[in-house]
Amino acid sequence: MQSKLPIVATSIFSKMTGLANQYAAINLSQGFPEFDTPELLKSKLAYYSSEGFNQYSPSVGIKPLQLQIGELVKRRYHTKIDAEQMVTITSGATEALFVAIQAIIHPGDEVIVFDPAYDSYQPAIELAGGKAVHVATHAPDYAINWSQVHQLMSEKTRAIVINTPHNPSAKTLKLADLTQLKKLVMQYELYLISDEVYEHITFDNQPHLSVLRDPELLSRSFVVSSFGKTFHCTGWKMGYCIAPTHLTDEFRKIHQYVTFSSFTPAQLALTDMLAEQGQHVDELAQFYQIKRDCLIDALSTSRFRVLPSEGTYFLLLDYSEISSLDDVAFCEYLVKEVGIAAIPLSVFYAQGSSDKVIRLCFAKKTATLLIAAEKLCQL
């Protein structure tokens, strides 16, 4: 049988987590929290499940959750949306990204993707018959060369995918970036897929510049969010997509044939969480900034060069003063010999990268971070 994704193999996340388990290493590779989901959310999930709310929900999501998301958008981004018409609940953000790409990409279309990039973008584009056109950014600042992006525009260019705060670089797009982005979108009549799953995790009092803040950009955009990242419940696979009605209509046509609907008790629990403990969202940035700063301080005597982390729960380390190994080999050395599992940055590039940079996840307990840092400081 001819594969539709011939170059796709086991993901680096599965590989490193497998090695971490094999060598009993501290797993700072895969991006999931070590701590638990909020008590209210867990108790609400148990309540609704035990009370019999276990059948299909409406394909687009339950209305109370849509309305709570609308209130969240209004409070955080000062934007009023028609939640029933614009919000679709999905089985995780990755499903939302996949469906958005399938909704707008046709065979022969090109999509601009910025490397290092989340690994689901390209397969989704290729399954739609499109081509991912990669624009590489590099350490230490991972800045986008917008002149290069302009030069890549053609009659085949259909869409741009952005991710802010950015995984894996931990950078955020600035106002100047969004200004350039908007020029491109409007000039070439592009669609925009904005991956904003870490939207509530930005540091040093810097706001998240969501596409939802700009009506013109939003008119051509799918904005994807993740409850899993916000409420420490990545295993629930709950997310949502916000898009204008004409794009939402196309999105929902495909969504109904991918998952049809998402986990009903979780939707009800998330509705109550947003209504009763909305402050959790507002406190998330400070919660993770404390963890970021803890890890940075603990690494201050190491030979690693710590790169700026402006958002997400990731920290990049330049190890060029420690080893001449490429980043994949260095990460294998770390897990086998040092007892730390990390992620090499080169795997997020279509053409690879020679930057000697690894990614750590600091969504862990303080004790875990301190033990890991002690091991890394010995190198």
Automatic annotation (TrEMBL):
MF terms (GO), sorted A to Z: transaminase activity
Domain Aminotransferase class I/classII large: 26-375
Highest taxon of source: Bacteria
UniProt KW Ion transport keyword: no
Keywords carried by this UniProt record: Aminotransferase, Pyridoxal phosphate, Transferase
Pfam families with a match to the protein in the record: Aminotran_1_2 (PF00155)
Keyword match Transferase: yes
Cited CDD domains: AAT_like
Required cofactor(s): pyridoxal 5'-phosphate
InterPro entries: Aminotransferase_I/II_large (IPR004839), Kynurenine-oxoglutarate_AT (IPR051326), PyrdxlP-dep_Trfase (IPR015424), PyrdxlP-dep_Trfase_major (IPR015421), PyrdxlP-dep_Trfase_small (IPR015422)
Entry-linked NCBIfam families: PRK09082.1
Protein name listed in UniProt: Methionine aminotransferase
Species this protein is from: Pseudoalteromonas aurantia 208
